[in-house]
Every structure is written in structure tokens, then in C-alpha cells.
Specification:
By secondary structure, this protein is mostly helical. It has twelve helices and three strands. The longest helix is centred in the N-terminal third of the chain and has 15 residues. The radius of gyration is 19 Å and the shape is elongated.
Length: 255
């Protein structure tokens, strides 16, 4: 598995006191790479004011991360027009350096966004005890669960690697990578994109969603115990089932 993760296992990047300009630039580039998911930042999109404040010691790395994640640029890349599952799993990846561990975490952030708004939801990651313990004020977030970590399930490794994709890939666009395993509480198959950016795992597959309980809106019959959908329909159907009060027992690929 080391060949899958070698590009992500470098030493954490920290802004130290009395950093040189070169050292500061290393930190800034690391923030953009991590928080913006490998999306290239044009000069016109650079956060010049935040960079200047970081240089002068007026803000910390944590503050800079917050500025980037709450920006219109970040929202345009990873929130607007993206499925809710995809936005949330990317927030976990970019801000906490890991994949969401279960449906409970997904639901919690959906609730926070719905009731308190976008900025409050971003704050809930960055102001969390987990963020403080992992990164403090001046360590750039990085992928933490691509090696064994106390307190995390083994499946979190597979989920995090699947979110990372390939070293040269971008997080812009795409469907949710973990929706099936998280909603169905299933083991995650590791899927890694090639260095050229092509995602592995064809999206022309079909999946069976096994359902229990009332409210299976997608099939319009309460007597139904499962439905079969293609990959692009998976996230929407899972959300509809849950909104209607149904319980997902499992998700399996249909041969």
C-alpha cells in the first residue's frame, strides 16, 4: 500500500517563529494544495490580504485555512452545484485530513449547514477539538489517516486513500467517493486515480440498495425492500430514502 500513499506521507508543514520568506511560501503553497484540493490558484485568485497578514504574524495558519475555506472561491469549487455528500467528504479531507467515519458525521454537518449556514459549518471543523489536537494553530492540515491512527477504524484508511485519489489529481468536480460505504456502513474498496487524473472504478455500474422501514420515496411503494440504481443515481436515492424515514441495510454492486 505504500505505493498508493507515498506522495502524501511527507512531514507536516508548520509555520515557525521568525520564518524566512522562502519558508513562509512553503507554508502558503501547502495550505493551497491541501485546502483547495490540488486546484491551481491563479494570481488573480490568490488570497493576498491573508498572505500579508500571515507574513506579519497578524493571523495563524488556522486563521488562513478558515479564510480559504470560507471564501467564495472555495464555495464555487466544492459547494455550489455539488452533491451534499461530496461537499462534506471534501470538507473532512481538506480541513481535518481524513474521511468522514459514518453517516452520523455526515448528518451532523448537513444539520449545521441547514440551520446555521455555510460559515458556521466550516467553523465547526476548524474550531473542533479534533482540529486543535491534530494541527494546533500553525500546522497545515494534512492526510492523517493514511497510516494507523489511534481512535480511528481500519476502514478509515481505505476511505481516506480513496478520497486522496492520485497525487496529481484535483478535487474539482466529480461524484461522492464514499457515499455507498458510509450510508450502508460497508467496507470501502480502495480506489486510486492515476497520475494523469483518470479516476479508477467505472461509474457505469449498478448498485442494489436494501431498505428497511417506511418511506421509500424513490420506489413509491412501502412494500419494496430494495431498489437498483446506477452510480449517478446512488447519492440522490440514498438521500431520498433517509429523508423519507427509511433505513439502509446495505449497498451492493450488481453484477
Amino acid at each position: 500500500m505504500s505505493t498508493l500513499t507515498a506522495g502524501f506521507t511527507g512531514a507536516p508543514v508548520e509555520l515557525r517563529d521568525n520564518a524566512t520568506e522562502d519558508e513562509l511560501q512553503v507554508v502558503i503553497r501547502a495550505i493551497y494544495k491541501q485546502v483547495l484540493g490540488n486546484v491551481h490558484v491563479l494570481s488573480a485568485q490568490a488570497f493576498e490580504s491573508a498572505e500579508s497578514m500571515l507574513r506579519n504574524g497578524d493571523i495563524t495558519v488556522r486563521d488562513f485555512v478558515r479564510t480559504v475555506a470560507q471564501s467564495d472561491f472555495y464555495q464555487s469549487l466544492f459547494f455550489e452545484g455539488s452533491p451534499a455528500y461530496r461537499s462534506i467528504e471534501l470538507n473532512f479531507k481538506h480541513l481535518l485530513g481524513r474521511a468522514p467515519e459514518g453517516q452520523g458525521e455526515i448528518s451532523e454537518h448537513v444539520t449545521t449547514y441547514t440551520t446555521e449556514g455555510y460559515s458556521a459549518d466550516i467553523d465547526s471543523y476548524i474550531d473542533s477539538e479534533e482540529y486543535a489536537n491534530a494541527f494546533g494553530e500553525n500546522v497545515v492540515p494534512y492526510p492523517r489517516t493514511i497510516s494507523t491512527q489511534t481512535g480511528f477504524k481500519n476502514n478509515t484508511f481505505n476511505q481516506t486513500v480513496s478520497l486522496l485519489g492520485g497525487y496529481a489529481t484535483s478535487d474539482r468536480g466529480g461524484d461522492a467517493a464514499l457515499v455507498g460505504s458510509i450510508a450502508g456502513n460497508l467496507p470501502q474498496e480502495v480506489k486510486v486515480a492515476s497520475s494523469r487524473g483518470g479516476a479508477t472504478g467505472a461509474t457505469n455500474k449498478r448498485f442494489r440498495i436494501d431498505i428497511a422501514g417506511a418511506g421509500t420515496t424513490p420506489v413509491k411503494k412501502l412494500s419494496k425492500t430494495y431498489i437498483e440504481v446506477n452510480y449517478k443515481q446512488l447519492s440522490r436515492n440514498i438521500q431520498n430514502i433517509q429523508k423519507a424515514g427509511g433505513t439502509i441495510l446495505g449497498i451492493t454492486e450488481v453484477a
